[in-house]
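Annex B. Sample input.
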Amino acid sequence: MAKNQEQPKKSKSFTGIKSSGLIILTCFVIAELIYHFIFGDPSHFEGGLTTNHPIQGDLLGTIYKGGIIVPIIQTLLLTVLALSVERYFAIKSAQGKGKLVKFVEEIKSNLSKGDIKAATAACDKQKGSVANVVTSALVKYSEVEEDKSLSKEQQILAIQKEVEEATALELPMLSQNLPIIATITTLGTLMGLLGTVIGMIRSFAALAGAGGTDSIALSAGISEALINTAFGILTGALAVISYNYFTSKIDSITYGIDEVGFSIVQTFAASHK
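Annex B, continued. Sample output.
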């Protein structure tokens, strides 16, 4: 009987926070605290908060006057920031310690020389989900190479299947929470517009109730209402940037795995006639 081969240890990487609902709830609590205790601080208003009129040029007081939509948009903004940080560390962990491009080139170089041990050592040094996928493929490479009962085509298919299975196990968590960021790209702007419309309705209703046209009061009301639009656009813009950035990172990781997987299969096919 053949001796049991020592299997290389797969590195454990940070896959992210699964409870996104908890993140959103935490962001909502923080947004409410900021809205009431920072934006709503009496020092931002003439004669205190009871006058309900911000000091001229005081941005924080003006933001507070944006109404109940402000903490909702703040929640979306904080959620984007929190999930962006979470995704950054998750994807960084998946890439491993070194640069992914350099790692792929090193693996391809070792494979072209037929040095499987050097390629495995590079995976142990790199760590991360990408290295784990390559390690699994290299282990299967050695196994099928010793299995003389399989034809060359069956051996190649076994290696390809191992790469696909390892990829399916290691990489699906990379896009976790990205759908939430994608949703906020639109939701942030829509909530900003909703807050502005509500503010405009209140401003014109107040003017109608006063029985006159106060241009100063109308201008102040419009300014306060537009705060929501500005917040919403900022939130949507950050969400778009974050989503596109991380999807491009995931694409580069997937491409790197495909490239290495193809090299492993081609090396086996070329070295085994």
